[in-house]
């Protein structure tokens, strides 16, 4: 099979991804082999390729927003049948025994493992996943439109929950890429006012089209105090900016796995009046199930730019340069 691997991490212009040939992997106990139809392109994949996240093993295959069909079952795997449509997300394993797992907070499990980081992911024609961490998808699901929901959608949903947006409240989104444009749709459908701060004109155009109440640059203050905000951009410099935009009792959630250095915070300007600062760490499987159900009920749909499988390196370069709005997806299957 063909797959993309991270060779020597470095700037995307240096070509850290390589297209190689490998044998189709064999599913182990309680695992299934998935023939990949489409895989979303996430900023985490860019961080991995460029070395902001150190690969957990040499020549790992990135990609953790996978839609495909079960093509083979490993020993003891009985949750899915061959031919079933499934989704694969970022979280791919936990211990199931620690206090975090037992209390419904498996995203904090010290022994958690991740698709496209600890194990090979979906920038490939086939990939393997533990059946307990795969999502059942409807036969009618469009592979390209569904793929971004499996990380961008799930993490955006968890970030929205962590941001404690009150009913009908004002939500600020800093950065408006794949995750933010899906989160905005959920918030708008639930009656929120959404204020978007982002640098790209294409992203600003998309935000207006989706119904944002106000759209500006990251340096601009929204016209009204925010009840909640989420920083999606990997820029620590936005943390004090977003905190200052919050009203009394507001909450800021930081959505990314990687963030540049956060400047010093001033208590009076940034944190006083019971402003809360919260982080987001991965997701639970329950988050994924809830988001997929919610997206179907509310009509949340990814705005996608589709790339041929052979153009994965170009997709990451375009992501870094902000050349598209919404989500990028590699189409692998026919």
From TrEMBL:
It comes from the Bacteria. Its cofactor is Zn(2+). InterPro entries: ADH-like_C, ADH-like_N, ADH_Zn_typ-2, ER, GroES-like_sf, NAD(P)-bd_dom_sf. Residues 15-330 form the Enoyl reductase (ER) domain. Its EC number is 1.1.1.1. It catalyses: a primary alcohol + NAD(+) = an aldehyde + NADH + H(+); a secondary alcohol + NAD(+) = a ketone + NADH + H(+). Pfam families: ADH_N, ADH_zinc_N. The keyword Glycosyltransferase does not apply. Keywords: Metal-binding, Oxidoreductase, Zinc. Belongs to the zinc-containing alcohol dehydrogenase family. This is alcohol dehydrogenase. The lineage of its organism: Bacteria, Bacillati, Actinomycetota, Actinomycetes, Propionibacteriales.
């Amino acid at each position: 099979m063909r797959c993309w691997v991270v060779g020597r991490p470095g700037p995307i212009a240096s070509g850290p991804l390589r297209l190689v040939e490998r044998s189709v992997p064999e599913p182990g106990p309680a695992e299934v082999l998935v023939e990949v139809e489409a895989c979303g392109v996430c900023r985490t994949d860019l961080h991995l390729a460029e070395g902001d996240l150190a690969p957990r093993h040499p020549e790992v295959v990135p990609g953790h927003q996978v839609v495909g069909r079960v093509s083979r079952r490993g020993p003891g795997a009985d949750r899915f049948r061959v031919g079933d449509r499934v989704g694969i997300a970022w979280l791919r394993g936990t211990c199931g025994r620690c206090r975090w797992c037992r209390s419904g907070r498996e995203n904090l499990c010290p022994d958690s493992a991740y698709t496209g980081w600890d194990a090979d992911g979906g920038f490939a024609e086939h990939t393997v996943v533990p059946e307990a961490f795969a999502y059942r998808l409807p036969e009618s699901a469009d592979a390209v439109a569904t793929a971004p929901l499996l990380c961008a959608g799930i993490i955006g949903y968890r970030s929205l929950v962590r941001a404690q947006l009150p009913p009908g409240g004002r939500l600020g989104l800093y950065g408006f890429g794949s995750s933010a444009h899906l989160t905005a749709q959920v918030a708008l459908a639930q009656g929120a006012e959404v204020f978007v701060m982002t640098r790209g004109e294409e992203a600003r155009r998309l935000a207006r089209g989706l119904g944002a109440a106000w759209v500006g640059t990251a340096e601009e203050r929204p016209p009204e105090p925010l009840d909640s905000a989420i920083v999606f951009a990997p820029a620590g410099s936005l943390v004090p900016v977003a905190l200052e935009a919050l009203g009394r009792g507001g909450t800021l959630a930081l959505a990314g796995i990687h963030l540049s250095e956060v400047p010093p915070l001033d208590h009076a300007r940034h944190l006083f009046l019971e402003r809360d600062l919260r982080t987001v760490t991965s997701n639970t499987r329950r988050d994924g199930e809830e988001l997929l159900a919610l997206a179907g009920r509310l009509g949340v749909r990814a705005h996608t730019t589709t790339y041929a499988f052979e153009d994965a390196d170009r997709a990451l370069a375009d992501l870094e340069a902000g050349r598209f709005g919404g989500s990028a997806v590699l189409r692998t299957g026919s």
